[in-house]
Amino acid sequence: MDKKKIAYLQFPGSNTENETKNILQKHGMLPFGHFWNDDPELLNSYDGFIILGGFSFEDRSRSGIIASLEPVVNELKKQALLGKPILGICNGAQILVESGLVPGNQEFQTLVSLTDNKRMVGNRIVGTGYYNKWCYIKPCENTQSAFVKKGGNPMRVPIAHAEGRFLFNKDLEDEILKNNLITYKYCDSGGNLSNDFPTNPNGSLHSTAALSNPNGNVMAIMPHPERTLGNEADDLFKSMRNYIESDDLFSFKSLNFSSKKTDIKKFKRPARQNEILVSTIIADNEAASVEKCINSLGVKARVKKYLHFEIDATDGLDINTIVSTDVLFNPSKEYIANIEEGSGVYRFLVRSKDDIVGQSLAQTLQDRFNLSKLKSIKKGVVWEVKVNSARIKKDVDLILNSHIFSNPISQECHEY
What we know:
Layout: E1 4-10, H1 17-26, E2 29-35, E3 48-51, H2 65-68, H3 71-81, E4 86-89, H4 91-99, E5 113-115, E6 118-121, E7 124-128, E8 131-139, E9 155-161, E10 165-167, H5 170-178, E11 182-187, E12 208-212, E13 218-221, H6 234-245, E14 265-266, E15 274-280, H7 285-296, E16 301-313, H8 319-323, E17 334-336, E18 345-352, H9 356-368, E19 374-387, H10 392-401, E20 411-415
Parallel strand pairs: 1-2, 1-3, 3-4, 4-13, 14-20
Antiparallel strand pairs: 5-10, 6-7, 8-9, 8-11, 11-12, 12-13, 15-16, 15-17, 16-19, 18-19, 18-20
């Protein structure tokens, strides 16, 4: 039998290509590198696909979003309709989620978020941010997946991510559970589940480590099964090969669920609270990448980015006292800025709905600098877009609904 050809997709900033090649060869499959800007039609010649982990486009704006808007991902959607297996690992999982390939409704809308890690014990946050550790995951019963062995045992696998927390709204949560789309869950070495850290290392809903589309041929997994040292993840890759080699009939089915159109409301500035906008002295590569992505969508626009802090404190706490701690920003390369008004300019304030970064900043200032009069800090980003077009409102609507600025599940977006 001919060995099956698997393309591993590489974007600028992708990594783990050697580990992926090795695990595919070990399981009798032929790996081929495919760069994001190679001819997308070449994907027709492959039997399956793996989107590598890493930091595509340096995670600018947020992890996976810029890569998800590249033409090669549109071709991947066509391959998914043909039943070919597509595995997104870590950053690859983020790309699948942002592109709508997972969980996969008819319009491939963005329905799920992979957002900031939140390590929890009970109701207490014990850690946030990047986390690198070995953990255990187990396959879920009743799931239909090209990457799951029925009756498989827990696997010991490494994780290495900062935005790996699966999050979905309540109405979609019901659909996910009804259709058994959670394919792997975080567990302990005995297969026992817990919502608490360290068993659940990032706070994912239902301890979700991997999520699939209804057919099971597309899966987003945050841990790195390709990085295992021994045979821990063999079941996953054997299942992938067996799926490709089977002659079962395939009929694509999508999730019967639609997202609401992005609705942007005017930001209401709370009374008696301080706002700070921060810009950068050096070149802002993140804004440049977002601008290039928007231009590739067919919209001529200039983009600028500001950090935004909303500070609530009791009378008597001077805002300069907070700024002077250098906790909020780095004065060697950033400065407090003022917005300049202009025609054709739109601004959008984006913040995480649970804003654990803002909570962490406030806790640091309260505990380390004895700023007991500080009540809270909310951190966000203000994206400024100057559109050069005769149809400005339509182009702004296109930008917003590409989700380049915000994920509608985990973030809120206001006109600023």
